[in-house]
Amino acid sequence: MLNPSDIQEKTTEELWRAYKIRNDRSARDALITRYAPLVKYVAGRVVVNLPKSVEEGDLIGYGSLGLIDAIERFDPQRGVKFETYAVARVRGAMIDGLRSMDWVPVSVRHRNRQLEHAVKDLENRLGRSATDEEIAAELGITMEEYEQRIQDMASSSILSLEDVWGNVDDSDTNTRRPEVKDEKAPDPLDEAEWSSRREALANAIARLPDRERLVVSLYYFEGLTVKEIAYVMRVSPSRVSQLHTKAVLRLKAVLSHMAD
Fold first, then answer.
1. Which residues contact 175 (CB under 8 A, 6 or more apart)?
2. CATH code at 164?
3. Cβ distance 89 to 68 under 8 Å?
């Protein structure tokens, strides 16, 4: 077991070797401490669309369990960056914790599902991004009612691009395993599949209305927070949340149709 003084001087790579090769629990605990800021980062991005009754501290608690799980399951020899692997597990643990709280009324969940299905069906028929007016007409509601539904969904759902396409680096979801293979080498079939998926996602993002595409770019690719995006776009944070919700709904509609 590593001494506390030794742990401070060890590189992260050395800690991974100590834990995975020698099962050194002190190295595991040190890794949890080093990656703890990742949990706070994910919590800060998840909490922005949630009601005030959900506290960031609760998300950090759930996410910490996800971090521990990620550290225990992670295989450094796969050549995947740990942060990429861990974010999905941390966020998933937060979502599972929120679901256990059952904080969204059944009626709101039902309306959210209706909205998702309407966008998917309409955009599949049109072969393009539907306008807000077309989606409202599909639902048989007024524009005011449609905007309210978007606002309700933005404040009651945890929509993200991670939900649209999953996580390529999550080994638990990778079921294609040849009988004999070099575990350190990438699976050509997996590589081809994910290359195709990334291209499909890029094309779907390109189809988004301008303001929704801008929100996606600033949030996911530039790493801005909702408040920062609101400042850049000169709109309210709630409006950014609405645009983000609309964008993810459209992306889910396009990509789920491809997966069918």
1. none
2. 1.10.10.10
3. no
Helix pair 237-259, 188-206: axis angle to 10 deg:
130
Q: pLDDT per position in the chain (260 positions), as tens?
A: 655 556 666 899 999 999 999 999 999 999 999 999 999 989 888 876 676 677 889 899 999 999 999 999 999 988 889 998 999 899 889 988 887 776 667 788 889 899 999 999 998 898 888 899 999 999 999 999 999 999 888 877 666 766 665 543 443 333 333 333 344 444 555 556 556 767 878 888 998 999 999 999 998 888 888 889 999 999 998 899 899 999 999 888 877 766 55
Half-sphere exposure of 179 (CA within 13 A, CB side): 0
Give the CATH number of the domain where residue 34 resides.
1.10.1740.10
Do 138 and 97 fall into the same domain? Answer: no
Q: Tell which of 103, 132, 157 closes a domain.
A: 103
Beta-carbon contacts of 163 under 8 Å, excluding residues fewer than 6 positions away, are 248, 252
Are 120 and 236 in the same domain?
A: yes
Shared domain for 131 and 239, answered yes or no, is: yes
Distances (CA, A) of 108 to 105, 149, 243: 5, 9, 19
